[in-house]
Amino acid sequence: MTTRRFAALVAAGVAGALGLAGCGADAPVTGVSPSVPVGLDALPVTPLPAERNGIEVVPAAAVPAAILDAVAAQTSVEVTGALERTATQEDGSVERTPLAFTLSGSDVAYDATVTWDDATVALSRDGESWWLGADAPYADALGRPDSVDLCLAEDDPLRERWEWLDGADALLGTVLGEALLGGAEVSAGGAIVTFQVVAGGAVVGELDVSGVGDPVPLLLTVDDPSGSAEVEFSEWSAVADPSARGCGGGATQ
Question: What span, in angstroms and rounded, lies between the C-alpha atoms of 47 and 43?
């Protein structure tokens, strides 16, 4: 499944979630809950332990933004992902196209690799210096023999083609779109909070988020008839000031 498909997939889930929220019984009358003895409603809620971030009690509409804000506050991350696009051919056979990628660094200094079919692409960004190194199959498919070792100009269309991998925040923003994440489930001990991802009224995946410290993502899994994905995030802020090669040591434009 491509990242553009993911964006459409999860965006569709927003409409489904909002539709479900608008149905059902009338809104409850405000005031003291009839299931709680009079007077107990005024008691303070038990506070969360100091290390817990409480992401599970954030309003559903605000959860994606809270997660992306946490990502933006980090200095570095390690990401590994495996995607598979599924397409049914006219003869009824199913074609599966797997893609794997890695990313290490931040949104402005990272090294990444992407592999699918028989092609491999390496990308590196150091500030505004972007480098791409493609193997022969990808360079031939593009009709860009220079992409074997290329420093990308600001207006090079290859930048837009790969912008979905431009750091963990871009990756998450593409995958989640403006989706509402719901059904939060807290693990024993509270270290992990799992949100359901809904599309078309059906649960199509889960997002594990850290329940301790900043609510950064840990594992995203999505599976629907068009494909599947598993993306793992680790080593958040393990490197205070990550560096990448960018165009250093590569070709010059």
Answer: 12
Tens digit of each residue's pLDDT (9 = 90 or more) over 179-237: 678 889 999 889 999 999 877 777 888 999 999 999 999 999 988 887 888 999 999 99
pTM of the shown model: 0.76
CA atoms within 13 A on the CB side of 149: 6
CA angle 251, 110, 173 (to 5 degrees): 120
Give residue 107's domain range. Answer: 3-21+55-234
201 located within any domain: yes
Is there a domain that residue 246 lies in?
no
- For the record, the structure tokens of 10 come out as 């999860």
- Residue 133 sits in a domain whose CATH number is 2.50.20
Distance of CA 197 to CAs 7, 29, 60, Å?
A: 12, 30, 11
Number of domains in the chain: 1
Digit-coded pLDDT (tens) for 60-97? 888 988 999 999 999 999 999 998 888 888 888 888 88
